[in-house]
Structure to design on (153 residues):
């Protein structure tokens, strides 16, 4: 069962009333990066390539078509017996952009990242809402203990 927006809001810091939705909580855009060197995925391990942070122009990111790593402004705590999913705000895809996301594990805590695909030039204000986190009840063995645990908190 998916939990309500108010349940999700209690696991996100900070949150405002404007971020709370019926079924989840909106996440805001904190920082934008362009990948600058290759990463690597091995059978056992991985490394993340270098990246270059983009600066906002008068508080606005003006993004040309391409792929960008985005960081969210909120610390997310996925409670035990739950799994999290992040979806793009539909206004992004209505503007020819897409946010690619993965699974948010039980026990993870941190400010995560997503991949923003820009298919047509777009302007996004720093701090604007770009995504929504929902939480579903889930069985699991163990909790998240990987290299991203506690990132940026
Ligand atoms: O779109 C997403 C999805 C997940 N996460 C966070 C929460 C998740 O619990 C953590 C690790 O994700 P995952 O397990 O998919 O990463 P991995 O590449 O397998 O890393 P690890 O080896 O640490 O498990 O990253 C994000 O920041 N963005």
């Amino acid at each position: 069962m998916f939990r309500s927006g108010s349940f999700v809001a209690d696991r996100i810091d900070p949150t405002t009333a404007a971020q709370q939705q019926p079924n989840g909580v909106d996440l805001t855009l904190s920082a934008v990066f362009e990948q600058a060197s290759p990463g690597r995925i091995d059978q056992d391990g991985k490394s993340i390539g270098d990246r270059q942070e983009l600066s906002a122009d008068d508080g606005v990111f003006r993004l040309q078509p391409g792929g960008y790593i985005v960081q969210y402004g909120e610390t997310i705590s996925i409670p035990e017996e739950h799994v999290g999913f992040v979806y793009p705000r539909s206004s992004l895809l209505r503007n020819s952009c897409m946010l690619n996301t993965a699974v948010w594990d039980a026990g993870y805590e941190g400010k995560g990242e997503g991949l923003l695909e820009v298919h047509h030039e777009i302007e996004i204000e720093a701090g604007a809402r770009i995504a929504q986190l929902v939480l579903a009840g889930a069985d699991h063995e163990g909790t998240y203990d990987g290299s991203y645990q506690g990132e940026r908190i």
User: Anything to note?
Assistant: The chain has one domain: 5-35+61-137. The two ends are 29 Å apart (CA to CA). The mean pLDDT is 98. The helical segments are 5-9, 90-93.
